[in-house]
Specification:
Length: 144
């Protein structure tokens, strides 16, 4: 039963990532449509790759909850797994990216977005933890 609960949580996360990726790619197709077409359906093989990407991202989310590792190590491992998933996504979905320079630019842009997002999340996390400790009264251990 515990495995089903664990798998169910990852599946929900994967569905959220899949929906976001689907919407993003569909929006990119809409914005880049030159012939004025209103719709674009993704091919089944691209959908499967997106689902695989979403599952990898959902599992990468678990890295952040491993308390045995320090926070910088968890963030670094999450970053590396995210970049690997994006690399595979860019490489497989857009098979026409054979130019390494373009792929590096795409990954650098994704890394920048990741860094900004991680910075905001870590700052908010630090502020929240700081407020929790502000409520406690300091009592000196040694009296003069």
């Amino acid at each position: 039963m515990k495995f089903l609960q664990w798998a169910g949580k990852r599946l929900v996360r994967a569905c959220i990532y899949f929906t976001a990726a689907q919407l993003f790619i569909t929006a990119m197709f809409q914005l880049s449509a030159k012939d004025g077409s209103q719709g674009h359906f993704l091919m089944f093989d691209i959908e499967i790759v997106l689902l695989g990407f979403s599952i990898v991202m959902a599992l990468a989310q678990d890295i952040l909850s491993v308390r045995q590792l320090s926070l910088p190590i968890r963030v670094l491992l999450h970053f590396l797994s995210t970049m690997l998933a994006l690399f595979l996504l860019f490489r497989i979905v857009t098979g026409q990216i054979t130019n390494v320079t373009r792929l590096v630019y795409l990954l650098a842009g994704a890394a920048f977005i990741y860094a900004v997002t991680a910075a905001v999340v870590l700052i908010v996390r630090a502020v929240r933890r700081g407020h929790k400790t502000d409520d406690k009264e300091y009592t000196p251990m040694f009296k003069k």
